[in-house]
Amino acid sequence: MIKETVFKPFLQEDDYQAITDSLKLGWLSQGSDTKKFEDAVKEYAQLHDRYVVGVSTGYAALHLALVIAGIKDGDEVITPSLNNIADFQAIENSGAIPVFCDIKDDTLCIDLDKAEKLITHKTKALIFIDYASWQPSYKAIKEFGEKHNLIIIHDAAHSFGWKQNNLYTGNFFDYTMFSFDPVKTITCIDGGILVLKDKEKAQLAQELRIMGMGQPAEINYQNKRAWSYDVKHKGYRYHLANSHAALGFNQLQKIDSIAQKRKQLFITYSQALADCKDMIIPQTDLNDIIPLLYVVRVQSSIRDQFRKELHEQGIETGLHWTPGHKFSYFKHYNHANLKVTNNVFDTFLSLPFHPTVNLETPSRIASIYKKLTHNPFYISHEVERQPIL
Ligand SMILES: *Cc1c(COP(=O)(O)O)cnc(C)c1O
In 94-132, which residue ranges form alpha helices assigned H by DSSP? Predict the structure, then answer.
C-alpha cells in the first residue's frame, strides 16, 4: 500500500472554512473573492506596475496569453519538450504549432543555443518554464526574445513566490502565467493568474475570460451581473470562480509557513541523499525559490528497478514529465536534437514532495537506493550526461 504519495494537497480547517464562507455569499461566479485574490497576488509578488487577471486554470492563462499576443494559425511557438501538456495544448488551441526544444543538462530548463537553431520565419513566440527547483537566466531569455523579435511567455507554474535578482517572478516579461491547480505550492482547487504588463491587454483578457462579454469586471467584483453589454471578440469560459479564489486567498495567507515546510523537506532530502553514489540531486539557492518538486537522476539501468522497490515499500515516485515529442498526438512535430531531454527522461524521477511528507522518508529512500547499488551487478559510473552541443 502506498503511504507516501508524490503529491498531496495541503488543506486545513481554515481552508474548508474559507470555501464555506465564500459559498454562503450566494455568488458562485467570478466575484468579490476573485478580486480579493487578484489583489493579494499582486501585493505578495510585488507586481506593482502589472495587471493581474484571475482565470480558471494555468492552461487558460497560457491560452489567453497566446490569443492576446496575436498568435494564430500556422505560427510556430518554441517550448521545451520537457514541459506540461497544458503548454502544448494551449499552443495547439491557438492554432500554432509547438516546436519542441531541448533543455540544459544542469538546470533542465530551455537550452537557448538549441532554441536559436529552431527559429524560422514562422516563429512568433517562446514559452519557457522554471522547473521544479531550477530557474534559467531571465536576462538571457529576455535578450534572446529581443534579438529574435519573439514574444516571450513565462510559464511560472512552478515559481510563484520565487525571485531572481531580488525581483519576484511575474515582473520580468510581458506575459506571465501562474497555476494554482491541486499540486502547486498553493492551490485554488483549480485556478490560474495571467500577469500582463499592458493595460489594454489586461482589459481584453478580462473580456475574453468571460465569453467576450464587454462589461467592466468591477460589476462582477461586487457580486453583481450586468444586464447590458456588447460582445466584440471570440471569448472563452475561463473565469476564476469565487469559492476557488477564496481558497487561493486563504492559502496565500499561509504561504510563508508552506514555503518553510517545503524548504525543510528539501534540505532533509539533500542531506539524506548526499552520499548516494552516482545520484544527481538538485542544487539550488533556497533563498530565492520555494521548491515544487524534488527531482533526482540515477543511472538509466536501475531507474525503473529503483522506482519499483520504492513502490514496494509504499513510496510512490513520479516522472515529470513524459516529453511532448513522445506522445502520439505530438510526435510528428520536431523530435530531433532532443538528446538531453531523452536522456533525462530515462534517468530522472520525482520523489514525494509536499508539506506533510514524513521527514523519515528521505533516509528510507536513501537506504533503498544504497541496497540496490551495492548489488554486485551494479557497475558504478556517473549518470549518463549528454555533452552540450
Ligand atoms: C501545472 C502546470 C501547468 C498547467 O496548469 P493548470 O493550472 O493545471 O492548467 C502548466 N505548466 C506547468 C509547468 C505546470 O506545472
Answer: 112-117
